[in-house]
Automatic annotation (TrEMBL):
<dbReference type="InterPro" id="IPR011035">
    <property type="entry name" value="Ribosomal_bL25/Gln-tRNA_synth"/>
</dbReference>
<dbReference type="InterPro" id="IPR020930">
    <property type="entry name" value="Ribosomal_uL5_bac-type"/>
</dbReference>
<comment type="function">
    <text>This is one of the proteins that binds to the 5S RNA in the ribosome where it forms part of the central protuberance.</text>
</comment>
<dbReference type="GO" id="GO:0022625">
    <property type="term" value="C:cytosolic large ribosomal subunit"/>
</dbReference>
<dbReference type="InterPro" id="IPR001021">
    <property type="entry name" value="Ribosomal_bL25_long"/>
</dbReference>
<dbReference type="GO" id="GO:0003735">
    <property type="term" value="F:structural constituent of ribosome"/>
</dbReference>
<comment type="similarity">
    <text>Belongs to the bacterial ribosomal protein bL25 family. CTC subfamily.</text>
</comment>
<feature type="domain" description="Large ribosomal subunit protein bL25 beta">
    <location>
        <begin position="97"/>
        <end position="184"/>
    </location>
</feature>
<keyword id="KW-0699">rRNA-binding</keyword>
<dbReference type="Pfam" id="PF01386">
    <property type="entry name" value="Ribosomal_L25p"/>
</dbReference>
<dbReference type="InterPro" id="IPR020057">
    <property type="entry name" value="Ribosomal_bL25_b-dom"/>
</dbReference>
<feature type="domain" description="Large ribosomal subunit protein bL25 L25">
    <location>
        <begin position="5"/>
        <end position="89"/>
    </location>
</feature>
<dbReference type="InterPro" id="IPR029751">
    <property type="entry name" value="Ribosomal_L25_dom"/>
</dbReference>
<dbReference type="InterPro" id="IPR037121">
    <property type="entry name" value="Ribosomal_bL25_C"/>
</dbReference>
<keyword id="KW-0687">Ribonucleoprotein</keyword>
<keyword id="KW-0694">RNA-binding</keyword>
<dbReference type="Pfam" id="PF14693">
    <property type="entry name" value="Ribosomal_TL5_C"/>
</dbReference>
Length: 207
């Protein structure tokens, strides 16, 4: 994805406030040299932040006519308004090693034996993974195939086929669960009790 940024010469709280009033967002680009202060169009950035790829893939930033590859590292939103207050990017190249969360895309769930045969529902225990890799090898997402999932057996990190050069950071957990099938609950059948003989007689007597 590509976006356009403009160099920001004025700094400070007052300058940032005036930028926001003018429909701009202050930001910074760090890494591989001196930090660069930038500003972006608010509406363009706001809509870009709604796209998954903007958060988890390399971005082409055009600044002063030069294209630079960056990663979105952080952004701040207004507590209650739909307004982006600040954004941070990291400048990267082919040798930059990064650690970043990447979303998981689940496929094959509806044809798995757990769902199709045993009528289980599948719980996605995690929907993203923290990975380390070279910036140029960063995947937009990781595909998780659930087509072989069976009742009573969960899918773990070690079961996922990772792209070359990708390592998952598990923070000491040897093989975390990614998805697990949940068996359907047995339906309770409530049978209404037949009216007692005395009740029947009582109803007849009232007629």
């Amino acid at each position: 994805m590509k976006f356009v940024a403009f160099e920001r010469k004025l700094q400070g709280t007052g300058a940032s406030r005036r930028l926001r009033v003018a429909g701009k967002v202050p930001g910074i680009v760090f890494g591989a040299g001196e930090p660069t202060m930038i500003e972006l169009d608010h509406n363009a950035l706001f809509h870009a932040l709604k796209k998954e790829a903007f958060h988890s893939s390399l971005l082409d930033m055009e600044l002063n006519g030069t294209n630079t590859q960056v990663l979105l590292r952080d952004f701040q939103m207004h507590p209650y308004k739909p307004q982006v207050l600040h954004v941070d990017f990291q400048r990267v190249d082919g040798t930059t090693k990064i650690t970043k969360k990447v979303p998981l895309h689940f496929i094959g769930e509806d044809v798995s034996p757990a769902v199709k045969t045993d009528h289980c529902t599948v719980t996605h225990v995690v929907t993203e993974l923290l990975i380390t890799c070279l910036a140029k090898e960063l995947p937009e997402f990781i595909e998780v195939d659930l087509s072989n999932l069976t009742k009573g057996h969960s899918l773990h990190v070690n079961d996922i086929k990772l792209p070359a050069g990708i390592k998952v950071v598990t923070h000491g957990k040897p093989n975390p669960v990614i998805a697990t099938p949940v068996e359907p609950k047995a339906e309770e059948i409530v049978v209404a009790a037949a009216p007692a003989a005395d009740d029947k007689k009582g109803k007849k007597g009232k007629k």
